[in-house]
Amino acid sequence: MNQPGVIIKKKWSTPRAAAVAGILFSLLLLASLVLIRISVPNDPNEVGDWLPENSRSVNLALNLLPFAGIAFLWFIGMVRDRLGNNEDRFFATVFLGSGLLFLAMLFASAAIAGGIISLYGVTPSLLIESGIYVFGRTVVFELMNMYTMRMAGVFMLSTCTLSLRTGIIPRWMIFLGMALAVFLLLSMGFIEWAPVVFPLWTLLISVHILRENLGKFKTEA
Hints:
Layout: H1 3-39, H2 51-83, H3 89-122, H4 124-129, H5 132-166, H6 171-187, H7 197-220
């Protein structure tokens, strides 16, 4: 008797859940980036004066990143689900590869930063005097600004290109995403708040997809 309703529910439950995961990823990454930006000086060569007062805030930001990464995988799955059989192999490979590289380098940066903070809690003087802090801080800065966020820009460009070919999101979102992706690729290391572009764009796409799926579910139910 209720089989059609069950089929419709199953059809739309996965995209809705993935869209919620995209929103969760955006909020978690945004919170983490803001906490780090207001707690850590932008200069990678500074001597670590922020550690006594702000290490807890940064540690909280780092603890949010694994959950953001898990949600990001769901977001990738959501986009691929919407592409379906229209997925272009070339751009889909760039899309998936850049997304996974972004996630891997984000986790690597967080692991190095977490190690620095843990070592500071045990032997703060040794961390500074041995040069480990300067080395680790520079590696994290380079990895995040030169590689991780640029992979985010490539992910945005490939997603927008696939969307332009398949029409899975509105065209104005596509062109906005392309413009923001170019901004992200060119501005890293020069504009401190540039990384927040990525989670904000992801939030916009996820909210649109969630609203669209909820509207279709109500219509077909």
